[in-house]
Amino acid sequence: MDTASSPRTPTLEDVAERAGVSRSVASRAINNVGNVSDTKRAAVHRAVRELGYVPNPSARALATNRVGAVVLAVATDEPGIFADAFFAQVIYGISVALERTDVTLTLVLAGRPEGAAKLRQIVRSRRADGIMLMNLHGDDPLAKLAEQTTMPVVFGGRPLGAEPQWYVDTDNRSGARLATEHLVEAGYRRIATITGQLSLDVAEARYRGYRDAMAVAELPAHRVEHADFSEAGGAAAMARLLEAHPDLDAVFAASDNMAAGALRTLRAWGRAVPDEVGVVGFDDLPTALHTDPQLTTVRQPIEALGAEMARMLLSILDGVRPTPLILPARLVVRGSTRPAADR
Amino acid sequence: MDTASSPRTPTLEDVAERAGVSRSVASRAINNVGNVSDTKRAAVHRAVRELGYVPNPSARALATNRVGAVVLAVATDEPGIFADAFFAQVIYGISVALERTDVTLTLVLAGRPEGAAKLRQIVRSRRADGIMLMNLHGDDPLAKLAEQTTMPVVFGGRPLGAEPQWYVDTDNRSGARLATEHLVEAGYRRIATITGQLSLDVAEARYRGYRDAMAVAELPAHRVEHADFSEAGGAAAMARLLEAHPDLDAVFAASDNMAAGALRTLRAWGRAVPDEVGVVGFDDLPTALHTDPQLTTVRQPIEALGAEMARMLLSILDGVRPTPLILPARLVVRGSTRPAADR
DNA sequence: GTGAAAGCGCTAACAC
DNA sequence: GTGTTAGCGCTTTCAC
């Protein structure tokens, strides 16, 4: 039959030989680059198919200085935060955006020092072509990563107090304003807020949006407690709010998880939602549907956030210089708020 | 100062030159392999430090046929399932186990056909040294992946009706038995169950555990509905159960999410939990703490599952032939069940 | 349009 | 112990 070729995985050389061309022609044909006659091109492609040839990524990477991988780094310390459905949705979006390319996704949890070190190691050894970086707290030294490397970095959300060259973010400030305006329009007046850690830009922006709306409505915005975006944190903050401001009649929580915690506390305190207290969350996670009552919230397009980050990074790698992208947030009204007329 | 060396990233050759040794000695010193005198070893390490040398992973991979990456493939179609806190915890466990190695984690969502194709592509081109594969349904062709490649595959959970060479799994059957026994001991008698998709081994095993316990208690085990591990699915299944078996006084749901859905339906139907109906879940996700009442459930060590998968894969890559690992599950009693004496 | 040949940066025999 | 050398499999000038 055939010359007894060993059953090792075929190389470009095997393809070239079988197609009766040189290695350089085979390479050009495979990568659709340079000039190759149609005859030879076809012969090469047939050989590729027959042999089941797959290029060796390491060899290619070595020759081209492109590894065909991007990393998603999530700067989160505790599993609790990462376990949030939020990141899963981001990852899903990225994954779909990468599916049709032959770029691979490397995931790094860069919250703990070991993880951050690993990320730096990846960067220094150029094990990836680019980085998507999320969930940076204000003081995180990783925020400076973009300046320390030539590898392109796309931020998911802005690091606090910085305006990176490339990022994708939700319009958090507007979203929070929408949420608060909705409470005002529903006739609530003594509106409190539960913020996330103000070392996160996203928390800061949502707090701003709350104050924007309160200022416009000429309502006092002093009923404020800070938490950490978690359900437990939201529950505790709600309790503090109720103690400090027993007269409050609504609360805007900067995440659905915190809103869920707030609902729990309100129930424990015997405050009826939405009749005595209106509650609005942020994110529109599955959580928002599972609470009782269901949460009025602000939907941010989380999967799209991931997909857009990936797309932005890929375009940068293709030589394009995109501009930052701000995704819109919109209000979703459910049972945890009700117009004054109906209460 | 120095000879005008270009500012490109240093190579092994640069290190060797600076340390005054040959490249092979430098390589041996760096990889702690073969014989190198202490003097030269020290010189090499100093040169490495001074130059900030980092080995080029592609070159190393090309030479050693080891790429220093493992993939986690999750065979999940819909974002909803992946968004489950479960996978996030698994990933966290894997990530921690990998932190101290210089092995990188590649994530592939292999549920959609494009994702599965991508996984196969990774395997064929050997872009990774090994695979962790999770959430396989009974009919998923990926289950055969392990037989089609020499790349080691560690399964997270068993594929239905198969006993792969390497896997890490929770003792789902025992866990489900514990859950059901707990209901029996609490004095519930007309105990129903909501299963996951029986095309998943994990659902099948938990269903078995339920029947085991019911058989031992000599109770009828015909109050059964099937769902898909989701909250919505659990809610719907609970409604079907209540219609078909209005007399039921307890339900074992094969996941916390389904149990949460069941709670929602029970509340809507005006059945008091735990006094009229006892409810037990499975997983001990954060969800279990956020329901009202909190869920009695079966805790499985999810982070450990991820960590053990990673450890198992690494040990295989080190030439060890480990045996499959079954992790224990244990009962966690909370408010959704109550002994008959207290009801 | 095509092919020869020189690397990419590393490791691993093998001879000294 | 140490250095020389031959690859790993690919891309990419550069002549023809």
Structure, described:
Two copies of one chain form a homodimer. The first copy, chain A, has 343 residues and is α/β, with parallel strands linked by helices. Chain A has three domains: 51 residues, 434 Repressor (Amino-terminal Domain) (Orthogonal Bundle); 126 residues, Rossmann fold; 129 residues, 3-Layer(aba) Sandwich (Rossmann fold), CATH 3.40.50. Helices cover 44% and strands 14% of the residues of chain A. Chain A is built from 14 helices and twelve strands. The first copy, chain A, has a six-stranded parallel beta sheet with strand order 2-1-3-4-5-11, with helices on both faces. A four-stranded parallel beta sheet of chain A has the order 7-6-8-9, with helices on both faces. Chain A has a two-stranded antiparallel ribbon with strand order 10-12. In chain A, helix 9 runs parallel beside helix 10 and helix 11 crosses helix 12. Chain A is elongated, with a radius of gyration of 26 Å. In chain A, 53% of the residues are buried. The N terminus of chain A is likely disordered. Chain A binds a DNA duplex (16 and 16 nucleotides) through helix 2 and helix 4. Chains A, B: This is DNA-binding LacI/PurR family transcriptional regulator. Chains A, B: Keywords: DNA-binding, Transcription, Transcription regulation. Chains A, B: One of its GO terms (molecular function) is DNA-binding transcription factor activity.
